[in-house]
Design brief:
Mean pLDDT: 96
Shape: globular
Radius of gyration: 20 Å
CATH topology of the largest domain: Gyrase A, domain 2
Low-confidence stretches: none
Number of helices: 6
CATH class of the largest domain: Alpha Beta
CATH superfamily of the largest domain: Probable tRNA modification gtpase trme, domain 1
Number of domains: 2
Strand order of the largest sheet: 8-9-10-7-1-11
Amino acid sequence: MKKNAYYYLRSNSSIIKHSGADSLDLLNRLTTNELSNLNQLNPIRTLLTNNKGRIVDSFLILMRNDNDLYLLSDSNDLSIVINEIEKYTIIEDSMLSDISKNISRIILYGKDIKSSLQKELNLVNENYNICDINGYQITVIKDISKKVDWYEIILDKKNISDFLETLNSFDFIISTEKNFSSYCVKNMIPSYHREFGLHTNPIEAGLINLVNFEKGCYVGQEVIARLLNYKKTKRSLVLLKSNNHVMIGDKINHNSLTVGEITSVDNDDNNALALVKILYSKKGTKLKINDLDVIVTKSSE
């Protein structure tokens, strides 16, 4: 019987190396999550927002050593991320470089992925492991910010062909872009440029778990706090169910009013993610896409 364990090879690994004695302190002052507990065995995902509270990027931070961090980015344009961080770098000992061309990045998911990885790789630590495979090393990171078991693996790009063969020998299943997107839709995992990005703030994008409201200031903090405290968020991320296929970009209506837009689709099961006005985002709300009936089955609101 096939395992429910999948691997998805990102076309762009999108990894920034952040070096310097002040790199961690700088990121803690710029991003939404509390990073004081970051260490080599405890990676942390955080958001970089701009001064309007909009999301520039979401990245998982790994501590490689005392002076070097890896930022596993969701963006495909790292120049924007690097420029935004450098804009606030004044006298800090901090250097940013795009190392994506040298590293491959694989996402692993599925209900059997945790047990399968433990069996095949004999993981010692819960969230971060370096494993030896066929004479080279891979780094295995658990992203605890996700609602499901979700692991990232990074390795030297020259070893990727051998490692993919190794994953196949584990009976892991290769995931296509469509399969991966469908999985994210079913589990309400927002994707960059779709459910979040410069067009959204963390609250409406369903990423409020990456915002620490107890920490001090960060870029966009006042705007995000005001949105939350005064209930000013205009939209919410929702999971929709229909009885037919829908398309990204389809407008969602209530009577004659446009109240949202489809952002990602899972046409295998006729599910979709959408950003919808708060008033129409409650579970059970019935909406329309042209003449097609859709219903809100989950909401991040």
